[in-house]
Structures are given as C-alpha cells and as structure tokens.
Amino acid sequence: MTVSVPQAWYNVLADLPFPLPSDIPPAAGPAATGRAPQVPKSLVRHSESRRREVPIADEIGTAYESWRPTLLRRASRLEAALGTSARIYFKYEGGNISGSHKLNSAIAQAYYYSRAGVDRLVTGTGAGQWGTAMAAAAQMFGMDARVFMVALSFQQKPYRRTLMELFGAAVSPSPSTDTDTGRTFLATNPDGRGNLALAIAESLDDVARHPGSAFCIGSGENYSLLHQTVIGLEAREQLAEMGEHPDEIYASLGAGSNFGGISLPFIGAALRREAPAVRCVAVEPASCPKLTRGTYAYDYTDYSGTTPLEKMYTLGSRFVTPSIHAGGLRYHATSKLVSALYHHKLVEAEAYSQTDVFASGILFCRTEGILPAPESAHAIHATIAAARRATAEGTTPCLLVCVSGHGHFDLAAYADAAAGLLTDEIPTDEDYRTGLSGLPTFTPAG
Amino acid sequence: MTVSVPQAWYNVLADLPFPLPSDIPPAAGPAATGRAPQVPKSLVRHSESRRREVPIADEIGTAYESWRPTLLRRASRLEAALGTSARIYFKYEGGNISGSHKLNSAIAQAYYYSRAGVDRLVTGTGAGQWGTAMAAAAQMFGMDARVFMVALSFQQKPYRRTLMELFGAAVSPSPSTDTDTGRTFLATNPDGRGNLALAIAESLDDVARHPGSAFCIGSGENYSLLHQTVIGLEAREQLAEMGEHPDEIYASLGAGSNFGGISLPFIGAALRREAPAVRCVAVEPASCPKLTRGTYAYDYTDYSGTTPLEKMYTLGSRFVTPSIHAGGLRYHATSKLVSALYHHKLVEAEAYSQTDVFASGILFCRTEGILPAPESAHAIHATIAAARRATAEGTTPCLLVCVSGHGHFDLAAYADAAAGLLTDEIPTDEDYRTGLSGLPTFTPAG
User: Fold this and answer.
1) What pLDDT is recorded for position A442?
2) Which of B136, B165, B368 shows the shortest C-beta gap to A369?
3) Which ranges constitute the DSSP H helices of A51-102?
4) Is the pLDDT confidence value at A248 over 50?
5) pLDDT averaged over every residue in chain B
6) How far apart are the first and last CA of chain B?
7) Residues A153, A158, A159, CA angle at the centre, nearest 5°?
8) Closest in A73, A97, A368 to B369, CB measured
C-alpha cells in the first residue's frame, strides 16, 4: 500500500461554477451581545479561501497519521451475498477513538482554537460521535471540554458519555437545566426531547458565561467539510491504485461533513475535467429528509436564533425529528455547501426508513465483519439498493460507500432491529409545518 | 509499509530444547462415551508437528487479509506523558469484528472443522471475545454456532451477546439450565457464578447431544497458539523495518494464545540465535494468578473432568475467580506450552490488581486514542511499570506490548474505574485450597 496521508485538504470552492450565498448576521438579538460563535481566523480562511489546496499543519498531519490512511476495501463477500453485477468498495472511517470520521475535523479545530488562546471548548453533539471526537482532540491540545448531548442519545448511549468523560469532558443531556435556553425550553416542553439545534443553542449560552471558552461545531461549516476531504482524497488514490474509478458514491447526510468529505474531491476532479463525472448520492433518513423534503431558504443553524443565517435545505430549526437511532442524521438542515450542490444538481439525494437501513447494516456486518453505525448503515442500504438495480438492469457499475463510523455503541438498537422491534416514525405534515414555523419571516436582501 | 500478512504460522516446537509433557486421556468416565473433544486431523497436526513453518491455507489467508497486517505503532504520546527513557511500541489486535486477536484462530478452526464435515460449532466464552470471533468465523464458513458464555460476563456485557446473535449464534449464560452439567452445578450452587471451565463442560455436554456438532476452544491448545503467531511474526517484521528489536515484551495471559501469539516468534528467533534474547513477560490478574501462584501439575481443562489431562500451571478447575472485569483472564490454568516455557524459565510472569490496571488503561486511552480491553490493560500496566523502572534506572529499553483487544463493551467497568468504584478481590488461601481440591488425585506415570 503506497497511499499516504494527504498533505493538503481539497477546497471545492476553487472549482465551483457558482458562488455560495453569503451568510446574514441576525438583525438583532443576542448575537449583538457576542453570543454568535467566535471562530479563529484560520478556520474562517478555511471556509472562505479560494485556494484549491489548503496545507495541513504538521501538528494535525502527525495526529492524522496515528490512524490514517484509513481502510478502503472491496466488499467482496457482500457482493457475493447479493449476487450483484456491481463492484462495491467501502471506505471505513470508524477505526479511531471517536469511532467515526468526526475526528478529522475535531483535531484541526482543536489545534486552531488552542492557537487562538482558547482553553475550553464547548459543543453540542447528537449521536455522541462528534462529542467524543471533540473531547479527545481537546485533551490532545490541553483544553477542557464541555458537551451538550441530545437527551435521547444521552439515554440511548450511556457509554458514549463515559468515553467522553474518560477524556475529561463534562457532559450534560440537552435540554439541560444548566442554561437559560435549556430551562426555557423545558418550561414549555416538559417532556421535550430536544435536538442538535437546541444543544448548539445551549452551548452558545454556556460559552457566553465562561470567558476563555469557545463554541465549536462538528459539521455544517465549510471548514469542517474541508477537513473531511482527507477521506475522498485518500479514496481517489486508493481506488486509482486498483485501477478503479467510482461511477456512484453513497454517503449518509447529516449536516454534511461525511458526505462532503468523501464526495467533494471526486466532484472537483470532474469539474476540472480531470476525471469522469460521478453520481454522488446523499442518503438521509425518511424521518429527517432535509434535501428530499426540505426548503432551500435562509435559516438559523441553532434553536435560539442567535447564529448567522445561512441559506440551506432545511426543515426549520424547530423541527423535532422522530426518535430514530441514527442520531447523527437528526439535524434539521444540511450545510450551505451541500445545499448549493444539490440546488445546482451536482449531487443527488435518497431517503430511507430505519427498519430497512438496519437490515442492510446487519447484512454488512455479517458479510464484511464491520458493524456500521446506524448513520453509515443508511449509506450502505442505498448502496445495496443500487447494486440490486445494477443486477436487474445488467449493468456493472463501480460503487463507493463511506462507512463513516462503527456501531459498537448502538447494539441496543441492533438488538431491537434483529428482534423486529424497530418502527419507522415518518414525520406528518403537521411536523413539517411546525418545523418551518421556526424559519425567519423576513426576506433577506442578499 | 511493506509488511504483508505472513504466509505461514511459526511453530515453536521446532526450536524448543525440551519436549512438552504428553496429555493423558482420562482413565474412565464420560470421555469413554465420546464426550472428549473431537479435533480435526489438521488441527491435531498443528498441535504436534515439528515443522517450523506451517503454511496458512489460502482461504484463511484471504480472510486474514481483510484486517491484517494489524497496526504496530510507537506510543509516543504515552512515552511523553510518562517522561520515560524507554521506547514503547504497541501491536493492536482490536481492529476486527471480534474486537480482539481471537479471530486469528477462530477463522483457522472454523475452516478446518468445516472441511471435516462439521455443521455446528459449540464453544464456551469468558469475556465474549472468543464467542464473537467464533460466531463470525462459523458464519463465514456456513456453520451454525452455539455459545455458552460465563454468566458474569453475560450480565456485564449484554451487547457482546447481541453481536454474537447478529452472526446467527445461539447464546446462553453458563451455568445454564440447558445441559446436565449446568443443572447439576446450579443444584449445588444456586447463586453460582460459574467460570470458563464450566462453560466448556456445558459445551461438551451439548455436543454429545447434537450430531454434526463439534466443540472448539479459543485458547490453550498448541494449535491456537500457533495460529496467533501471525501477531508476533508481523511485529518482528514491523519493528525490524523501523530498525528496532524489543528488549522486553508484555502480553496479558489467559489461557495463553495472546501471550504466545506475540512472544513465540521472538523466543524462537532467540533459541535459533538469529536474534538477541527478549524478556517475555506474561501479565496476569492478581485475582487469577496461575503462573505466579499456581501449581505445575496435570489437570483437567474443563470442570466436568471429561477432557484429557494436560500438565499446566493451574489453580485447579474448581477455582472460582473473583468477579474481575477482565473475563478473558479468568481461566483457572494456562496452556501447557506457556506453562512449559515458564517452568523452563524461558518466560516470566507478573500479576497486577485491576484498580491499577484500569488506571493504566485510561492513561493509554487518553494518550494513544485506543480504549484497551481490560485484559489488554493488564499488559499496558506492566509495560508502564517497566517504563517507569527504566526511567528510574536510567536505561533505554525497547518495550513491545500487545494490545489484544478494544474495550468498547467494557465502558461500564471503565465508568466505575473513573469513579473510584472498582475494588480488588484477591483470592484467599481458602479459595486456592478449593481450587486445588479439583486436581486429579492420582499421579500419572508420564
């Protein structure tokens, strides 16, 4: 194996044939008091630069080398089980302490926040993968960590909390009674389940009260998608070494960093006409289908409405996702970058329900010996569907799927799935209306 | 990285300067009815051959390639945290679906049992790592699987059971009400905790009642140590590539396959005078110290006394280990091969209590980003102790430790450890007497 860890991240903004819609600072409210996230200049540059290759700092590259390059392998036993005419390759990002791709950005962010003088990082986490990654990265650079974890995941996955605490992080369920935002939410939603947007709002509250703290976020921002491009850059090289180029790429879609991470380098190569076009498919849960059912509009990225407005495919920051097990896909919107790619038809989207998704996750585990996170099982399910289509149509595509994390902390869900106890909660029209009621009512000039 | 998966296992019997004591069939009892394990001829050859290199069959090698060669890395951040003058390298065997080294032998055994016409494998498991490995391997070769899991682990690690069931295995806690042996044990020990020897006895019971079934075992037999030598063979090559040779090797000791797997290739090279001698240290729990507190004697490998007698360091098959979390190290004896090496002073042993061991496991997780299984944490603790000694003595040894598995299913224990809730249960003289009361009373002629 001669593929090595990339020396630079790939910045798709250098190759996009359209500009991204600008963010809009909230007109009034708490943001004016400094509660909007303060992002280090290096990360702002990572989000705004037009430079195609953004060098990876030595400290980050050294940390990457402790688990990268990650495995890329042909799923031969899965292919055999399906009897498919397709060739299926998977890239596996679950082999690090955070159990997912999230560590790729956590290490970069912790490095830059640390250099900016921050000594305490605060964040919200859904399934707990980002929280674990952030806790590990914060400790690596000598910082404290504070995590607000969506209450449902907090209850479903107690060992995620333990793992974060082993890295010295303080962890609360969100909604919590630790912040004004949390208390206000609980007062009006006593049995409220919360969501990632609320956890983010609580984090911003917490930061405002603790000098030296900063809020960081696992996905959605351009810079986190940039950091994740190590996945796709490695995959391109690894496939090329085997004489392959993918026809289709499947990755699950939460806020966008996993999907962006594997697909952007391929999309860029096609835009530069250095490689054939690839059909890139974002796979979302039918219970939180922001691309396939959402609106392309300016929205807040958190619940309290203190963050800048970004133009995104969104279900509204007040959308409360059904309690599916793929906590990482419960975010109400997706990144402005993936949203723009979807709007301009450079990427596609499919939505699946969790009972089907878990069945495919179990098949993948049995055949390939890797238990996928429920998030990753979405992408696997879409890949299996594509392989079956290919067989039916007599085509022989090369399929690439990103298995973004392991499911070792999701075995309670897998046990339910194996016992036929999972259900599919699909949002109602009323749920969608409630979500959109949180959209800002003015029309921005931009 | 140019190191590839070995093409052959290393057989230390070719280089040992002494013969291993022969096994003795039980003089009477159930063994005469065919309840002793029926082992395929290929595995018997693996145990008895004097050939130094035993070729790895293509089907096994192909399976190995899905996760081997495994990671060998310098623990630079651990070294820095310790401020040690020692160089610490670790070999990591937790990156496969079983979460431990056990898959190395499970795949080989499943392959040979399948070729021998067996369609159902039955086994006992302590911590569940072997059971998971066996379930995965059985499914890979189209066989059913039946697992008796020591009740304490069954309760402590429900997700281990789920994972085995995802591979189609049927899993019971041992003692169970499914077998005569289990029922008899429960009748006299209604709150009996059982141990691996009892789980093995129940497995043998079950096999006797199910034609087409065979009993298989995760560790202890010469052939399982042989299969595990891929660990040490890879490690030798990987270290040599970095210009290193270990002065000391640390591995946890249960029945012996992990310790044997990493150390035998180094011991063999030293016996052949092809490489300097290495201090190989078997690390055992203070609650189950078979080498440091046991007796070198002929003993049964199971509880019911139906298996051939083997000469081993043993605490007696009726020894009931305190309920420590490192289930894989609870076996009452260790393999005859490791026992002979210890008797002839080719290897050493150290015993540590679990509170110290978990603290070292947490330090390793924080610094190296891998959460070790409690078993592996024993070896890590001994390595840290060695590194501290080196610093105190001003020496600069090269230390190699085998991190045999991950601790993702042991986070309840880690949470207790972090909260200061773990205790050390050290056996009493009475416990040791009870254990030895199970030793066969006759003196074999051999």
Assistant:
1) 60
2) B136
3) 58-64, 76-82
4) yes
5) 92
6) 48
7) 115
8) A97
Q: How many CA atoms lie within 13 A of A168 on its CB side?
A: 16
Sign of CA dihedral B105, B111, B112, B113: positive
Please tell me the distance from the alpha carbon of residue A394 to that of residue B199, in angstroms, as a whole number: 50
For residue A73, what are the β-bridge partners?
Answer: A90
Residue B443 has pLDDT above 70, yes or no: no
Residue B7 in contact with residue B61, Cβ under 8 Å?
Answer: yes
Share of chain A above pLDDT 70, in %: 95
B155-174 CB burial, b ≥16 within 10 A, e <16: ebbbbbbbbbbbbebbbbbb
The 10s digit of each residue's pLDDT in B17-63 is 999 999 887 664 444 444 556 899 999 999 999 999 999 999 999 99
Q: CA–CA separation, A402 vs A93, rounded Å? A: 8
Tokens at B71, concatenated: 């990671």
Which pLDDT belongs to residue B6? 97
Residue located via tokens 């060998």: B72
Would the CB atoms of A97 and B414 count as touching at under 8 Å? no
CA gap A363, A357 in Å, rounded: 10
Chain A within 8 Å of B156 (Cβ-Cβ)? no
CA distance A156 to B361: 25
Higher pLDDT, B35 or A17: A17
Q: How confident is the model at residue B137 (pLDDT cuts 50, 70, 90)?
A: very high
Asked if the C-beta of A423 comes within 8 angstroms of chain B's C-beta atoms, the answer is no
- Closest by alpha carbon to A390, among A85, A58, A182? A85
Assembly ipTM: 0.90
